[in-house]
Amino acid sequence: MGSSTAYQTARHGLKTLLLEQFDFLHPCGSSHGESRTIRATYKKDYYCNMILESSHLWEEAEAEIGYKVYFKTSHLDMGPSDSKFLQAAIGSCQKNSISGRVLDRSEVFEEFSGKFQLPEGWIGVVTPQGGVIKATKAVAMFQTLGVQNGRA
């Protein structure tokens, strides 16, 4: 979050100082390592809005740097059909015009070539707004872009 914020503030012409508790690209936080997933299925509406907006911001940063760190995929959540999380996520997707499909256990089995055999009473929720982020590479990208914008 810090490196991304530094990039955005520098990009908008603000004088920016990026401070880090450890070395840059350290392994001590949640934004390091090979990958992180991104999804649109949250029970809180504001997360859905953030995901939709962030997709555009990822694309802008990638276009500026010239390489990809965010790879869009479909996303599958699974759980009991009466799961409060899944029901809230389905409702939030509907309210925010995120196209989610609810699949019963046999549809999950069929759509995913038998990879998932859900227990009785479970469902799957598939949305196209998922993805994988190359975490360390993304942080490095934002730090580089911050410097290139002349302020970080």
From TrEMBL:
UniProtKB keywords: FAD, Flavoprotein, Oxidoreductase
Alphabetized Pfam families for the sequence = DAO
Q: What GO annotations for molecular function exist for this entry?
A: flavin adenine dinucleotide binding; sarcosine oxidase activity
Spell out the InterPro entries in the cross-references: FAD-dep_OxRdtase (IPR006076), FAD/NAD-bd_sf (IPR036188), MTOX (IPR045170)
Q: Oxidoreductase: is it a keyword of this entry?
A: yes
Q: Name the protein family.
A: Belongs to the MSOX/MTOX family.
- Protein's recorded name: Sarcosine oxidase
What species is this protein from?
A: Sesamum latifolium
